[in-house]
Every structure is written in structure tokens, then in C-alpha cells.
Amino acid sequence: MLQFETIIIGAGISGLYQLHKCRDELNLKTLAIEEGSDIGGTWYWNRYPGARCDSESHTYGYTFSEKIYKNWTWKEKYPKQNTILKYLKFVEKKLNLRKDILFNNKIISAKYLENKKLWQIKTNKNKIFLTKYLICAVGSLSATNIPNIKGLKTFKGEYYHTGRWPKKKINLKNQIVAQIGTGSSGIQVAPEIAKTVKKLVIFQRTPNYSIPARNKKLTKEMINDYLKNYEKIKKLIKKTPGGHTFSFPDRSVFDFNKIERDKIFEKAWLKGSLAFRACFGDITKNLKANEKASNFIKEKILKIVKDKKIAKILTNFDHPFTSKRPTLNTNYYETFNRKNIELVDLKSNPIIKITKNGIKTKNNDFDFDKIIFATGYDALTGPLLSLNLVGKKKTKLQNFWNKSPKTYLGLMIPNFPNLFIIQGPGSPSVLTNVPVQIEQHVEWITNCLNFLNKNNKKTIEPTINSAKKWSDEIKRLADASLFMKAKISWYKGDNIPGKPKVFIPYPGGLPRYRNICNKVEKNQYKEFLIK
Ligand code: N01
What we know:
Elements: E1 2-9, H1 13-25, E2 30-33, H2 42-45, H3 66-70, H4 81-95, E3 101-102, E4 107-113, E5 118-123, E6 128-136, E7 158-161, E8 176-180, H5 184-194, E9 199-204, E10 210-212, H6 220-228, H7 230-239, H8 258-271, H9 287-304, H10 308-314, E11 327-329, H11 332-335, E12 341-345, E13 351-354, E14 358-361, E15 365-367, E16 370-373, H12 382-385, E17 389-390, H13 397-400, E18 419-421, H14 434-454, E19 460-462, H15 464-479, H16 510-522, E20 528-530
Parallel strand pairs: 1-2, 1-6, 2-3, 4-17, 6-18, 7-16, 8-9, 8-16, 9-12, 10-11
Antiparallel strand pairs: 4-5, 5-6, 13-14, 14-15, 19-20
Helix pairs in contact: 1-14, 14-16
This protein binds 3-acetylpyridine adenine dinucleotide.
3-acetylpyridine adenine dinucleotide (N01) binds next to helix 5.
């Protein structure tokens, strides 16, 4: 049985950086284990047509190395999935990481051996490893959710989830295709495949607010500009709440009359960016202010979509803008003006079952060649629960988290010594430009391991009390936010039957979170049991 000082689960953005830090900075004997056949995590699995990132490319990547930052050139405002994959392969090569990654192995269980103070890891290929530290770099959106709709097994065509899109080329030409789900993934897939398929029927449960991405090629000047400003950008994205280059101004929606306000909205709409929500400081905080932004978007959709019935379904909002994850699109609303598109409102016409030939709703019987599930994820907790973690005193994570995920800082779990999570439940994670959060987590974990090794400490785990206080803090912040106004939101577990209904990520913003983590480190981890 091979033994390591550190095992990292996952070789996506977080796993790769953590491997570099543990192996090259701390000199720990380290192995990363990856389920896929190559590196990339999210960007390995999400190969669906139209997949792109909606953080601006020059902010979406590692900033820890000036050399790496400056030796890579982003060519578009929003990078495509395979461009990000190429970027990660470029980084991996620079750091020579591949030789310490075991591919095609999925972790099926991880058990803490109290007498040895080691974790025992098992993979689906019957490989067993021991390790002192176990770092879960499994991503927050990697446990795909295919809803349990009656009859799926009887469907005789092929079906796919966007987050597990097949490697083989899928021929959609002349096909009649169903797409269930209109979140970030669905909004990207539909315009892309509508160009090819014979007919696309989109099944919408909740309408989504979407801002035009206005993707474009970066000019030489733009590229030189961001490269020149490396230090500035690196500092800036650490200061803003979401890890983007934009922050929220002091100005209120109510400081302006409708004409002035709409001018500001229009400018942001034409620019196209997640920064639309930061046109005013109160859109994401105050329901009345939020209504102004929501109404502006609604009016835009009503203008774009020609069919009045479809436009009504697309704007039948039941939640405030930004209470669910805001999305960017390229011609999503325009796609509904095509002749080969149909929109089904699941609120009035729900799915009854999937049949051999297609989908039966309350009012219709549809025949399909293929079904695309853009139905999201068992976010944040799902990827960790699937590892079948068993901690001290035979504590199963499934039981320990049955009412709510309990972590301290989203980084560690009581009863699970020496187990670290990158982007875990209880951290800002999915509410941020993810690589910024990842770098902060990897660096915090690295410093913590360094502290333990230097001080000859064998184990670390947070106290139950610190985890309880952290959950209370998340609840307090979430209750005061607009996030809780969304009826169905994966931020609070509503999309998965049986999942605890609590707000999962930390909603206090990255700078505040970073300060708390830094304080914990400076005070030598007083909220933890260290032995
Ligand atoms: O998943 P989602 P996603 N019957 O959960 C619907 C990141 N991301 O893969 O809103 C019918 O957002 C569900 O309906 P409702 C990003 O963080 C980023 O799109 O729950 N419908 C919804 O419409 C994002 O937020 C990028 O009522 C069902 C859709 O399926 C996160 O990943 C691109 C259903 C799921 O939307 C997840 O996005 C892609 C059911 N039983 C993803 N169950 C970029 O950076 C669910 N739905 C651009």
C-alpha cells in the first residue's frame, strides 16, 4: 500500500495549484488523484456546445506567478472551454505536474485510521493509498444532477448532462432535441445547438435573468494593457467582493430619475458583463432598488423576443435579479425568434414522464431523438458526500451533515482531522470569480500544513463550537440578503430532493472572508484542536 504525506483529490484549477504548493514549496510527498483521463476539472467535463467562462479571461486564471501570467495570452474577452483547458495544460507543463497525477481513478471511499493518524483512500480501480493529509479539490459544481423523472430508462434515444458531456462528437444535425434547464449552462447551449438541430424544445421551470456577454476578440492594445497591469489586477481582484475587477459603487438607484437610471443600465447592457449588477450599489441589497434592474432586463427581453407568448414565459420572474446566479448569454433571447425553437413552461405544463420516444407533459406528447439535461448540480456538498468520508469515531460525513453542512470557514470539518477542502460549503466559492477564491484557499492550506510540520504537530481539526458559530454567521448574512428571496435556488439546496434547505456558501464577500482566514492563521489556529 503506497503511502503519501499529501493526497489531493482532483486535478482541476485547485488541485493543480495545491499539488505545486505541497510538492514544490513544502517538499511533501504528494499525489493528486483524478477521475478524468486528463487535467482540467470543470473544464475537462463541461465540453457542451457553447461552453465558455463568464469571468473576463485576464482575471480568470492563476496570479501567483508573474511569469505564468505573462507567458500566456488570452485572445477573447470570455474564454471558451477548450481555451481554458489549453491554458491549464500550459500551466501544468510549466510546473511539471503530470508525473504526480494518477488519472482515471475515482475515489470511492476515504476512512480516517485513528490509531495511525492516516487517511486510507480507495479508488474504483481497487487502488488503496495512505496519506497524512487529504485535500479535497473536487470542485463545488461537479456532482451532476439528472432529475429523477419517471421513465428516463425507457427513452430509446441518447441523453446527456452538460456537466458530463461525452468526448465523442455528438451529431445533432436534423435531430429533434429536448433541453431541460435554463441556468448558466442551458443559456449557453441553446443558441449554439439551435443553429444545427432540426428542432429544439426548451423546457423551462424558472425564467432566468440574463445579460448579453458581448464577447469579443481582444485587440493587441487590450492584451498589452492587461499584461502591463498584472500587479494592479492581482491586487484589485483580491479587494472586490466577487473577485472580479468591478466593485459596487455608493450611488443608489434612487439618486437618479428613470431616464438617467436607464442610461446607466443601457451603457452596462451594451458593454455586457456580470458588472451589470454593480450599476448601482443597492441592486443586490435592496428589493425596491433591485426591482428597477429586474424591470429593465424584463423590458429588454420583451423587446427582443417577437412572439408575445414566448416573451411572457421568459419574463414570468418569481425572484429578484441576482438572488440566483446571474448569467451572461450570446443571443439567448434572439434564439427564440428562430422557427425551429419551442419553449415549454413547466409551471403550467409540467413533465409527467419520459417515454420511449420522448417527453410527456401535462398537455403534450413530444417525440425526441436526444435529451440534454442542463439541470445543474448537487452543489458544494454533493462532491464531498460522494467520497464516502468516514472520520474520527467512525463519523460518516453523510450523517454528520444530514441537517446542514458543518465546516469551519468552508475549509475543514470537525471530526475529520487533517482533511482540507478547497472551495467547500461555507466558503465564498461559487459566489466569486472562482480562481481568486482557489488561490486564497490553496495558500491558506499550504501555510497551515507548513505550521503543523514546523511545530511537529500531527493533527488539526476545527472545534464543533467554531463550526457552529460559522454556520450561524452564514445564516445571519444570508437572511439579511436577497439570496433567500429565490424560490428554487441551488445556493440553498432547493434543487435536490431531500437536501437540507440551508444557504450553503459564505455570502459575506471575499475580502471580509480573507481577513477572517488571515486572522485565524495569525492567531495560530485557536479555533482548531491541534495535537
Ligand atoms: O445549473 P443551474 P447550470 N425539472 O442549477 C433546471 C456555473 N456555470 O449547469 O431554476 C426541470 O444553474 C433549473 O430550474 P430552476 C455557474 O455557477 C458557469 O446551468 O431550479 N428543470 C435551471 O433552469 C452556474 O450557476 C458557467 O427552477 C429543472 C437548470 O435546470 C452553475 O455552474 C457556465 C429540474 C439548472 O440550472 C450551474 O449552472 C455554466 C427539474 N427537475 C455553469 N432541475 C459560466 O461561467 C433543475 N432544473 C458561463
